[in-house]
Amino acid sequence: MSPIRLSLLGLAALSAAACASVDPGTPLPTDSSGAPQPLADHDWFAATDEGVAHLTYGRAESDDVWLTLSCAPGSGRLALTQYSGPDDATRIALESGGETEAWPATREPDEMNGGVYLTANAQADTPVFLRFRRVGWLAAYGDGWREVMAAQPGSAGRVERFFADCG
Q1: Any idea what the CATH number is for the domain that residue 61 is in?
Q2: Alpha-carbon span 45 to 128, nearest angstrom
Q3: In a domain, 24, yes or no
Q4: In terms of pTM, does the model score above 0.90?
Q5: Where does residue 118 fall: left (phi above 0), alpha (psi -120 to 50 degrees), or beta otherwise?
């Protein structure tokens, strides 16, 4: 694994550890809007490392990371890294509030956890990301699976700040 990839994985774990976690045993409020409910022990975490902004979804204080969005401030371009999904995947597919998009992905070996992870590039103003900014959740999906990544109450501002910084 390249030093940059290890740095990103370490940054994701550190940014998750730096944020307060929600007690996994705490029930979350119900929402009648039809929006997906957040997992009690997962959230979106933001960090900046060497001038690159990162928005990572995962569990605080762990290496359980599902997706990282990264950008140089003002660039309008995102680097996507998906850490879950089937080993034979060749694309990153995301949806939010009815918007969907998929990008061809490069498969990278995940030496830390075994298996592979996927990387792709996208525009920050793609409709799926614009919807994510409004509704506070994003889902990764593929043939026969779907993983919803919803922000905890009060943390949606991290998502908006990340995209505002990316331009």
Answers
A1: 2.60.40
A2: 19
A3: no
A4: no
A5: beta
